[in-house]
């Protein structure tokens, strides 16, 4: 068992060295001890329109017994696009069980980005600020809780109530992840009316 652990560790080291030399500045070591890495992938054009960051964690059993844990980060990647790309990566893993697959994943993602760049897909609007919310997205962020003026006493009782059982947890809205200079940010929003809701 120890020999196979050593072999897996050596396979991981060899793969990381190869990827680092192939992708140069686009390859980033996030945490060497935890084996977390990130690679910026673009559509290979002189002025890339489509980019994506692939973050991977290599568990101890990778590549022979476990797949890498991964996250796809791009402001434009959501819904059907995300699902299709994730399915493609998982299919590659299944077809190459027990082998190092990060290079295959990176090249598959690049292939998808090149196809998007060559198709009629509009360029992603990655310069949009948090203040510029699309009209159709505004409804997603409406607060569910709107107190009625006539019900102020009930509202006061609710706010000062000591029993957390009758306290409803608010719905949490999660924003889309945004990657900028090798850092990923994601906003979370929830309407709260008591300090207990905040701590819960």
- The 3D shape can be described as globular
Which structural class do you get from the secondary structure elements?
A: alpha+beta
- The radius of gyration is 23 Å
Strand order of the largest sheet: 1-2-3-4
Order of helices and strands: HEEEEHHHEEEEH
Instruction: Report the CATH topology name of the domain at 25-117.
Output: Ubiquitin Conjugating Enzyme
Average predicted confidence as pLDDT = 76
Percent helix, as a range, is: 25-40%
Number of strands: 8
Strand content range: 15-25%
CATH C-level of the domain at 25-117? Alpha Beta
Largest sheet: 4 strands, antiparallel
Low-confidence stretches: 126-153
Total helix count? 5
Q: Give the termini distance in whole angstroms.
A: 43 Å
CATH evolutionary superfamily of the domain at 25-117: Ubiquitin Conjugating Enzyme
Q: What would CATH call the architecture of the domain at 25-117?
A: Roll
GO biological process, one term: regulation of translational initiation
Protein name: IMPCT protein
Organism: Irena cyanogastra (Philippine fairy-bluebird)
Domain RWD: 14-116
Outline of the structure:
InterPro entries: Impact, RWD_dom, UBQ-conjugating_enzyme/RWD. Pfam families: RWD. The chain is α+β, with helices and mostly antiparallel strands.
Topology, pairings included?
Elements (H helix, E strand, L loop, with lengths): L1 H22 L3 E5 L4 E7 L8 E7 L11 E5 L5 H17 L6 H17 L33 H9 L12 E2 L3 E3 L2 E3 L2 E2 L5 H5 L1
Helix pairs in contact: 2-3
Protein name: IMPCT protein
Pfam families: RWD (PF05773)
GO biological process, one term: GCN2-mediated signaling
């Amino acid at each position: 068992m120890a020999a196979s652990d050593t072999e897996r560790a050596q396979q991981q080291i060899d793969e990381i060295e190869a990827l680092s030399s192939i992708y140069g500045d686009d390859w980033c070591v996030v945490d060497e001890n935890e084996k977390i890495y990130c690679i910026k992938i673009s559509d290979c054009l002189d002025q890339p329109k489509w980019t994506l960051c692939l973050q991977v964690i290599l568990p101890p059993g990778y590549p022979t017994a476990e797949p890498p844990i991964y996250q796809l980060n791009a402001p434009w990647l959501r819904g059907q696009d995300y699902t299709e790309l994730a399915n493609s990566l998982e299919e590659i893993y299944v077809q190459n069980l027990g082998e190092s697959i990060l290079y295959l994943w990176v090249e598959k993602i690049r292939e998808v980005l090149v196809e998007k760049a060559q198709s009629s897909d509009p360029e992603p609007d990655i310069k949009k600020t948090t203040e510029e919310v699309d009209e159709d997205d505004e409804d997603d962020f409406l607060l569910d809780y709107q107190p009625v003026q006539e019900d102020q006493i009930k509202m006061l009782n609710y706010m000062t109530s000591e029993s957390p059982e009758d306290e409803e947890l608010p719905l949490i809205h999660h924003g889309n992840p945004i990657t900028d200079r090798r850092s990923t940010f994601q906003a979370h929003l929830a309407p709260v009316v008591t300090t207990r809701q905040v701590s819960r």
